[in-house]
């Protein structure tokens, strides 16, 4: 049985991960955070002493990149080899360099294969997959495709509330820089044809989860 794929894209700080995870829990679906794989690779590259700007060495490091991303929304964890990197990959230092590894074409091809394999292995009735190019490249045929957005101000405010001790302006600058870098590689700031936009600027967390579930309900 092939699981139903719910594809969700959106910019940095849009709440994709937490909203997608909550949606998956409510529906009894799996959850795949593709950004976590790019972050885990940035972590692996740095742990191997490789410069994130050295694309050839980044590509070579894929051979030793043993990543495992859980798809259980209740017990979500990311491992590289034996190391649990679930928390480490959220570090602002990783956020600052992740776009440099994500822009390398061989990296994208490699990780997209991993994502598709993990989607095909999902034993729950469906899987919520979130990232930047899920609605357009990874799963363009998914029956449900959503772009989750919020104004830049609201995204910066929400993210700085998560990162204790960070000023909203510097968090906003970091989000903008990352979105600009990522936008050169994949388009996720506007919805592709057939993709439903959910704007959470005026919604709280539970209302956003409800809005996403409503889109899924309308299509299925
Ligand atoms: O979603 P998150 O902010 O954790 O993603 C981290 C980074 O991974 C993004 O800034 C982007 O560089 C990369 N990414 C990507 N394609 C995806 C998901 C994430 O290039 N589908």
Automatic annotation (TrEMBL):
- Residues annotated as binding ATP are 10-18
State the similarity comment.
Answer: Belongs to the cytidylate kinase family. Type 1 subfamily.
Q: EC number(s) on record? A: 2.7.4.25
UniProt KW keywords: ATP-binding, Cytoplasm, Kinase, Nucleotide-binding, Transferase
Family matches, as Gene3D superfamilies = P-loop containing nucleotide triphosphate hydrolases
Protein name, entry field? Cytidylate kinase
Q: If you read the UniProt record, what top EC class would you report for this enzyme, in one word?
A: transferase
NCBIfam families, alphabetized = cmk (TIGR00017)
Q: What is its main location?
A: cytoplasm
Can you name the source organism?
A: Agromyces salentinus
Query: What Pfam family is a match for this entry?
Result: Cytidylate_kin
Cellular compartment(s): Cytoplasm
Q: Where is the secretion signal located? A: none
| Domain annotation Cytidylate kinase: ranges | 6-216
Q: Its catalytic activity? A: dCMP + ATP = dCDP + ADP; CMP + ATP = CDP + ADP
């Amino acid at each position: 049985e092939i699981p139903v794929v719910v594809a969700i894209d959106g910019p940095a700080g849009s709440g994709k991960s937490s909203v997608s995870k909550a949606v998956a829990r409510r529906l009894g679906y799996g959850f795949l955070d593709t950004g976590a794989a790019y972050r885990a690779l940035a972590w692996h590259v740095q742990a191997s002493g490789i410069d994130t700007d050295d694309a050839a060495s980044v590509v070579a490091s894929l051979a030793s990149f043993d990543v495992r991303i859980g798809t259980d929304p209740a017990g979500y964890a990311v491992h590289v080899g034996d190391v649990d990197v679930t928390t480490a990959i959220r570090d602002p230092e990783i956020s600052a360099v992740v776009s440099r590894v994500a822009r390398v074409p061989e990296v994208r091809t490699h990780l997209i294969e991993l994502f598709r394999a993990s989607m095909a292995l999902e034993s729950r009735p469906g899987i919520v997959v979130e990232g930047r190019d899920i609605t357009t490249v990874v799963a363009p045929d998914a029956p449900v495709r959503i772009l989750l957005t919020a104004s830049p101000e609201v995204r910066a405010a929400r993210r700085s509330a998560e990162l204790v001790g960070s000023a909203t302006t510097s968090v906003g600058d970091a989000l903008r820089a990352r979105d600009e870098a990522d936008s050169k590689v994949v388009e996720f700031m506007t919805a592709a044809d057939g993709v439903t936009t959910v704007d959470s600027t005026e919604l709280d967390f539970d209302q956003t989860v409800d809005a996403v579930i409503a889109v899924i309900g309308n299509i299925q």
